[in-house]
Amino acid sequence: MGITLAVHVSPADVDLIAATVDHHRAQGVDRVVLIDPADDPALRSAIESRLAPGAVELVAAWAPDGDDWVLDAAGGEFWVAADPSTRLVEALRALDRTVARIDVPVTGLTGPAAASGAGFDRLIHRDARDPDRLRSIGVPVDPVTRTARRPGPDVPAEQSTVEVLRLGSRSLAQRLAASGGDPLATARYLAGTPTAGELESAGFALDDRLRDLRAAADTPIDALPAVEREALRVAVAEQLSLAGRLAHAERRAEAAEAALAAQRSRRVVRVADRAGAAVNGVAGRIARTAGSVRDDRDRRRVAHAEARRARTVHDLIAAPIQPLVTLGEVTEDAVPIVMCLYKRPARLPEIVRMLALQKTDRPIRLILWNNHAANTELYRRVLEDARLVNLASIELYESPSNIGGIARFVVAHWLWQAGVRGPFVMLDDDQDVMPDFVATLLSEYRPHSVTAWWGFANHGSHWQRSEVAAGEALDYAGTGGTIADIELVSEPGYFDLPARFLMLEDQWMTSRALRHGWQVRKSAVLIGQVMAEESGNQYHGLRDRKDEFYDYLHQDAE
Predict the structure, then answer these.
(1) Which of 149, 339, 366, 378 has the fewest CB neighbours in a 10 Å radius?
(2) For residues 453 and 467, is the Cβ–Cβ distance under 8 A?
(3) What predicted TM-score, i.e. pTM, was given to this entire model?
(4) Per-residue DSSP letters for 258-318?
(5) Between the CA of residue 153 and those of 99, 145, 157, 310, 436, what are the distances in Å?
């Protein structure tokens, strides 16, 4: 039985070619074919300079021939036997002779970040993180299998004796090369790389079977000169800001398309109404009257729902409810992080994990407010398995009804009444944060201030706005990724905003702070927006109302 390894190569992985050949030769592979569909002379030269003549076949296209097992791979992937004491060739020989195809799972190996290097000494942990989470920050996880074939029926057979280990995002330099210089590659690489503390606490399984392969030494991020580290930090901040602006532009474009479609629809209706009136004026008047009645009924229904939501908020202020779940010990010196949950239940395990790994000298009190009761039992089950690690406590509340983001300030008001003073933090459930998230916000905190990751300078309307740099003043501050002085909610009148605008708590927060002479500034904290979760945002239905509320809040200035 022969074994052929067919590797699809790229310039980003050329530094692993020699190690790839050495490893698979030692595992019993007879023949190595490197496939470069672009037939790039520079890549060919780089590969040939690293290998002995005749060590591999380098081709632009290739089709299997003969009776060998043919193993499919990409650069940075290494076939192994699942049993570390067994060679790959022995694991393949142990398969039933009738088996002609197996689909083999690919497991990523991960470890601390580095500026450059192959990572054999560093990437020695199996990456068991959720694939959707990794995709959301740009870490490649597809395909999840590779295939071994030989002549015979092309029907996958079940097996557990062979697997593929992948060194994917090996270093910042490699990630940039693989992305073609994508301006977000730096931020995505650092966001997707676990710290040494995470590796110890999150249960990553050690797998160092590739550790002895030859490669150049790594250059850790921490070993870079201070000037380069600062430049890297600034680059990440700029790239994440760019991502936010692009996402905002996409949302603006979607809203414009929706408005155009609605306008076209209204024109069709108006033309139809005129035609009907021309044929039968009485029928036209009846139709218009019926439409007006429906509009009035819809407005009354919305106003009733808004009034009911406002009553719920005031009821909660007057009579606080108890948490359904409390984990750990609530301490007086803990920093409260208040988060509203709505229709993204799949995000909770990752949220708890990220916050449990925060690096800060202060204990953290995570308070979860569930605005969608249908998810309560799911959240209970998630919290049963939660590991507190650096979290002092977790509390879960179930809202009597969906009161939106104003719940953050309801909770903050309760904390104030209970004697909590100083900063409290707010986070959205569609945001990914770094281990220094809380520490960075605490370093920016000042009494009588609001410091926000998402914020802009306004120019006469909510949507007419511009970016500002970290530390600069804001006219509008969002609530996701924000630290504020809890005294903000100490006044009884804080919750006396019109019911129509109750869901626009971010604008209300900003206005109240500025009217009291507080500092409202842009934070330098790094946050990634989970774009896949955008469809769950409640703000989509409130876009037009934001400018209406802006005018309401600024009417005294005119």
Answers:
(1) 378
(2) no
(3) 0.51
(4) HHHHHHHHHHHHHHHHHHHHHH-HHHHHHHHHHHHHHHHHHHHHHHHHHHHHHHHHHHHHH
(5) 8, 19, 10, 66, 53
